[in-house]
Design a protein that fits this description.
This protein is α/β, with parallel strands linked by helices. Helix content is about 35%, strand content about 20%. It has a domain at about 5-115 and about 210-225: Thiolase/Chalcone synthase (Peroxisomal Thiolase, Chain A, domain 1, 3-Layer(aba) Sandwich), CATH 3.40.47.10. It has 13 helices and 11 strands. A hairpin with a 2-residue loop joins strand 5 and strand 6 (about 200). The chain is globular. The protein starts with a strand and ends with a strand. The model has no long low-confidence stretch (mean pLDDT about 95).
């Protein structure tokens, strides 16, 4: 298998892009990645997206974007894994390049979510849950996470305000990211006063949706001359039951544990070797559960890392250094690719005020559904 490196990156600001169509949004990120890579053509195109048939009325996104960016005749496909679609597309492209089937691949994660009414988007997002045993019973996606958070607080004795550092950290970091949707610092007091969405999850526990696209170009590592060179050291994926109530332990992300364990072994590293972790903080409870499942905290103690200021850029394990889903925004099918792009920025040393000093190994973890599909990637810097 060939070692694979990331040659170019591109992203758009997460926002309400009323002036851009789905093709323009994804195309912008693709062109920026190609410009950064210094290429005009690639051998294959992989698109990560969840909602385009329901929100934009468009399927067959591989050919849709290939046609727009001038990649005719090449392989071009769409990959869907709910909110994990971006990382799933990246993994598919990675396997193709590392196997030698193609010499270069463009991966685009794209989502346009603000063209429909909120209730319609909520219904579309619910398709990531179990339609028979969750959605049919009237439980929304945020409601499922609220049930998990309530049980977690009961089991381990945490108060709602104890989760505030996760949101505070993400908002503070987003202030320095021009591509982030929310540029507003928050406090514990503001966190606690925020409007309730589904008890105990309030507005500042939850990530905002938005329109956005992020892209990378990957090639065999020997073709990348720029330094530092960012290589893909590990790629792993695992699944759990789609319905949370079917799990042996609803408060443990087993797919995160399995995929990160495999990724650590593949990369030859341990949790303490990770310099930056772009985790999937769709809700503050997911940040805590991710830290526990990936080995950064003991069971039930993920919240403590935030309370002890260990998740900031100078902490034990810097997370969400560009704002995370919470403040950069969560254009669901694109989120996994934003995470990859942001880790590359850290390893290149391009993050200015939120740069993690000496970052050489970064991890990105993208979650589909309420922990049903989880993909973990580890990237490393080679000088």
């Amino acid at each position: 298998m060939k070692k694979v490196a990331i040659l170019g990156i591109g992203q758009t600001k997460v926002d309400e892009h009323w002036d851009k169509s789905l093709r323009e949004l994804g195309g912008e990120a693709a062109f920026l990645a190609m410009q950064d890579a210094g290429v005009e053509k690639v051998d294959a195109l992989y698109v990560g997206n969840m909602l385009s048939p329901m929100v934009s009325g468009q399927n067959q996104l591989g050919t849709f974007f290939g046609d727009w960016v001038g990649l005719w005749k090449q392989e071009a496909v769409k990959i869907e894994a709910a909110c994990g679609s971006g990382a799933a597309a990246f993994r598919s492209a990675l396997m193709a390049v590392s196997a030698g089937d193609v010499e270069s691949a463009l991966v685009v994660g794209v989502e346009k979510m603000t063209d429909k009414a909120g209730k319609d988007v909520t219904a579309a997002l619910a398709t990531a849950a179990d339609s028979d045993y969750e959605v049919e019973q009237g439980v929304s996606f945020v409601g499922i996470n609220a049930l998990v958070m309530r049980r977690y607080m009961h089991e381990f004795g945490w108060k709602h305000e104890d989760f505030a550092p996760f949101s505070i950290n993400s908002h503070a970091n987003a202030m320095h990211n021009p591509y982030a949707r929310l540029h507003e610092k928050i406090t514990v007091e503001k966190f606690e006063r925020s409007s309730m969405v589904a008890t105990p999850i309030n507005l500042l526990d939850a990530s905002p949706v938005g329109d956005g696209a992020a892209a990378v170009i990957i090639v065999p590592a020997e073709k990348v001359m720029r330094r530092p060179r960012v290589v893909v050291s590990a790629s792993a994926a695992a699944t759990d039951s789609i319905a949370v109530h079917s799990r042996k332990d609803p408060m443990f992300l087993n797919a995160a544990y399995l995929s990160s364990k495999q990724a650590y072994e593949m990369a030859g590293v341990k949790p303490e070797d990770i310099d930056v972790f772009e985790l999937h903080d769709a809700f503050s409870i997911m940040a805590a559960l991710s830290l526990e499942a990936t080995g950064f905290a003991e069971r039930g103690q993920g919240v403590r890392l935030g309370l002890e200021n260990q998740i900031g850029v100078s902490g034990k394990i810097p997370v969400c250094t560009r704002g995370g889903l919470k403040a950069r925004g969560h254009p669901v099918g694109a989120t996994g690719m934003y995470q990859i792009v942001e880790v590359v920025q850290q390893l290149r040393g391009e993050c200015d005020a939120t740069q993690v000093d000496g970052a050489s190994i970064g991890m990105a973890q993208n979650i589909g559904g309420s922990g049903a599909t989880i993909l973990t990637h580890i990237l490393s810097k080679e000088n």
